Amino acid sequence: xxxxxxxxxxxxxxxxxxxxxxxxxxxxxxxxxxxxxxxxxxxxxxxxxxxxxxxxxxxxxxxxxxxxxxxxxxxxxxxxxxxxxxxxxxxxxxxxxxxxxxxxxxxxxxxxxxxxxxxxxxxxxxxxxxxxxxxxxxxxxxxxxxxxxxxxxxxxxxxxxxxxxxxxxxxxxxxxxxxxxxxxxxxxxxxxxxxxxxxxxxxxxxxxxxxxxxxxxxxxxxxxxxxxxxxxxxxxxxxxxxxxxxxxxxxxxxxxxxxxxxxxxxxxxxxxxxxxxxxxxxxxxxxxxxxxxxxxx
Length: 297
Hints:
8 helices, Purple Acid Phosphatase, chain A, domain 2, 12 strands, 24% helix, disordered N terminus, globular, alpha/beta, single chain
């Protein structure tokens, strides 16, 4: 996805009502009075049930000339959310200079930041340098790793890979190049499995770049579906009972879908958010913790 994105406008939240039956959490839209100056978003109702609000966006494709374009937008995350999730393609050509611009745009963000890299971030072969630039700023870069926000909510993330969906999934048969391609996808699946297995929190949030289901790439030309993700990634999401998944990459796909096991999946690529509303620069997602999630305290 090479289209240059216009500098963002100030954020207007996306928070469609969503209900999730995933263990440990119910997921729902937040009320406007919890955005700025309202009641503490982590204290809901007389029972004092807490929530975590996630701001999520990907595919901002920063170039060196974009310094200053996103700083005000990201600063608004502080009152809006408890954590910022970046779903990859943070740079345009995968250059260290571009990632340093991204870090500058995050300068005023005070909440924890969780990120995965995307295919654009690999373009120049400097992906490890880019990851270190982010880590030096304090960003939790997930490459098969986990980040525990608190005792109730944790994050697992990988870039993911291509390969297709359903009966159209590419199999490891034939030429060595084909087998190597499939092996790359399976390696990402294994890294995701390992991260989810290690994550002991009752609420498990998954961050990807590539799509784990076909539902959130619908809207793209069908001929390129295999290059937008693979549902090999969906099986561990269901097996380890993920609570919610965020990804990007499919700029013309669909905003929301779910895995066969009912895990909600959101495509938060910036062009998708802008298509829903031109003012939108990140999606706000509430995870309301059920009493069972709090009983371990």
